Amino acid sequence: MPTRPKVMTFCGVPQPTLEDCRAAIIPAPLEATVSYGGGTALGPAAIIQASQAMELYDEVVGSQPMDQGIYTHAGVDVRGPLTEVVARIERAVAEELAADRLPVVLGGEHTVTLGALQALKAARGADFTVLCLDAHPDLREAYQGRRLCHATVMRRALDLGLTVRHLGLRSSSQAEVRLIQEAGLRPLWAHELHEDPHWLTSALEGLSGPVYLSLDVDGLDAGIMPATGTPEPGGLSWQQVTAWLAAVCARHQVLGLDLVELAPLPYQPAWDFTAARLLYRALGLIFKGVS
Ligand SMILES: [Mn+2]
């Protein structure tokens, strides 16, 4: 039997038996096409490190999500051409889907999401919606000459025939806005959210069927999440993001998720912890399932 590489596990628990797990974390420390601040390569390790200090009990979920079994894989090799990296992520996600485990991709830059979406589409078709928490639509056809990068990843999702629904947008090009209108997308912009007491209803209106969750930490307000490459003011609070997650998970089957774009700040672990907690809350709510 091959020996498994030793990895620091999420929450610092002894590595559970893979076959007994409901979810598997796939670290993908990709940092290839960052446009402003760097540091996303260190994101997965910082989140896993911060999770060592996290309580296993989640008072909102009302249980210990870790008891359901969360496996922590060694990181995906993110060296080499981007298309190859995305293909490796796709294979890693496909393995989890085939084993009926929830794939959890930990970025790294947002480009990693494409691997997960390709795997899901191959496994079950395009009958699901990508729910994307993000300050940016990432809908550019190309950015700085690249068709595959963090600023185009949701455009590539549209190319796959998927439906994308954004939450928290507040930094977009005019061309992206035009595409949103032409493609009939239904984002909830951050400024709309802050003006609408019923924003949670609006955010999920008309949504049906299973979803994939793509959580870019810059969807959170820069005040509570400055540790990201392109922090934007006017974002969501912790309470708003977690309320949205709770509503989504209570109504929709979640097929997979990712948490991306954390760029840890030296000697300031608070936001690594925020990201770890967000991931753990999301897992707890997904395990709890549709109510
Ligand atoms: Mn973003």
3D structure, described in words:
The chain is an alpha/beta fold. The chain has one domain (10-288): 3-Layer(aba) Sandwich (Arginase, Chain A). 34% of the residues lie in helices and 14% in strands. The protein contains nine helices and eight strands. The protein has helices at residues 43-51, 82-98, 113-124, 153-159, 174-182, 190-195, 199-204, 238-251, 270-288, and strands spanning 23-28, 70-72, 102-107, 129-133, 163-169, 188-189, 211-216, 254-260. The chain has an eight-stranded parallel sheet with strand order 2-1-3-8-7-4-5-6, with helices on both faces. Helix 5 (174-182) links the parallel strand 5 and strand 6. Helix 2 (82-98) packs across helix 3. It is globular and about 50 Å long.
Please name the defining characteristics of this protein:
291 residues; alpha/beta; Arginase, Chain A; globular; binds manganese (II) ion
Global outline: globular
Number of strands: 8
* CATH topology annotation: Arginase, Chain A
- Characterize the largest beta sheet: strand count, sense, and whether it forms a barrel: 8 strands, parallel
What small-molecule ligands were found? manganese (II) ion
Helix content: 25-40%
Biggest sheet strand line-up: 2-1-3-8-7-4-5-6
Q: With helices defined by DSSP (H or I, 4 residues minimum), what is the helix count?
A: 9
The span between the termini is 41 Å
How many structural units, i.e. domains?
1
Alpha-beta classification: alpha/beta
Relative strand content: 5-15%
User: What Rg do the Cα atoms give?
Assistant: 17 Å
Going by CATH, what is the homologous superfamily? Ureohydrolase domain
* H-E string: EHEHEHEHEHEHHEHEH
> How does CATH name the architecture?
3-Layer(aba) Sandwich
- The average pLDDT value, as a whole number, equals 96
Which blocks of ≥5 consecutive residues have pLDDT under 50?
A: none
- Supply the CATH class: Alpha Beta
